[in-house]
Design brief:
The chain is an all-alpha fold. The chain contains 7 helices and no strands. It has one domain: Methane Monooxygenase Hydroxylase, Chain G, domain 1.
Length: 153
């Protein structure tokens, strides 16, 4: 998982190369893409394929340990492996969100944000995907932990 998170960091960084092109220069690349897009790439399709089963396997391990996500963070440091896995899954989800954001911003910068993208859908729809989460329970746990801490205060 650590290597996978790092690989996403590299992919996100590579998007900056596209920003070195002028919007007009990018049009030549866009013609070659046809109906392809970043979201339709083999790499991103693979991410969409493997990410849900990772979350399911994590949920199963939590159940086996008799924990939920919040209890893992409150009392689960005795479950260090599960804790580390939860943090890596959150990092993975975060990097996917960062990639979506950078992808949207690059597309908006090079072709505009009020045009139709390579797949025939409006670019503005990319912006709506930025907040999509694969593991919402890991994100929601932070809210609950903050509530618990406030209740104790």
């Amino acid at each position: 998982m650590r290597r996978s998170v790092l690989a996403l960091d590299y992919v996100i960084a590579q998007l900056e190369m596209l920003e070195a092109l002028s919007p007009w220069e990018y049009q030549a690349i866009r013609k070659v893409l046809g109906h392809g897009s970043g979201f339709d790439s083999p790499g991103f399709r693979q991410i969409r394929r493997v990410t849900p089963p990772l979350g399911q396997a994590f949920a199963e391990k939590l159940r086996e340990a008799g924990l939920n996500v919040v209890s893992l963070y409150v009392e689960g440091r005795s479950q260090e492996d599960l804790y580390q896995l939860a943090e890596l899954l959150l990092s993975w989800d975060e990097r996917i969100g960062l990639w979506r954001m950078r992808h949207y911003l690059v597309v908006a910068r090079v072709i505009g944000d009020q045009v139709v993208g390579t797949q025939g859908t409006p670019v503005e729809l990319l912006g709506g995907l930025i907040k999509q989460r694969f593991y919402p329970e890991l994100w929601q746990a932070r809210n609950r932990l903050t509530e618990l801490a406030n209740e104790e205060a």
